[in-house]
Amino acid sequence: xxxxxxxxxxxxxxxxxxxxxxxxxxxxxxxxxxxxxxxxxxxxxxxxxxxxxxxxxxxxxxxxxxxxxxxxxxxxxxxxxxxxxxxxxxxxxxxxxxxxxxxxxxxxxxxxxxxxxxxxxxxxxxxxxxxxxxxxxxxxxxxxxxxxxxxxx
Length: 153
Fold this sequence. Notes:
- This protein is mainly alpha-helical.
- 64% of the residues lie in helices and 6% in strands.
- The chain has a three-stranded antiparallel sheet.
- The longest helix is centred in the middle third of the chain and has 26 residues, at 67-92.
């Protein structure tokens, strides 16, 4: 079913397409930038991607660095850069950086979110209170059996 043919682009593998014609691996991967990277036709880009992911793997797996710590350090670095930029701009008479005000939620939507969160946490606390005093043993048994099954898995 598979035959081998040599092409100038480094393709040596062909497969039989459902229509009956031969289809190269480059054709199978979509004949675009992704195929060029996967087949190492763009060597610098492929090497850069490999090096980047290797650095991430070393950082997170080998050095046991955490993603949240990385995000926090990047945020601190960005704040430091903007602070220095704005102070240097004042000293040299340049325009300071323009940082837009970000409004993710309106005040009303935020209040609704907090009220809903408070209501659900209060309900959860009351359920835990009932379980602690032995009023709702059925739910306690269900929770402990579910937790123990998940722990065994």
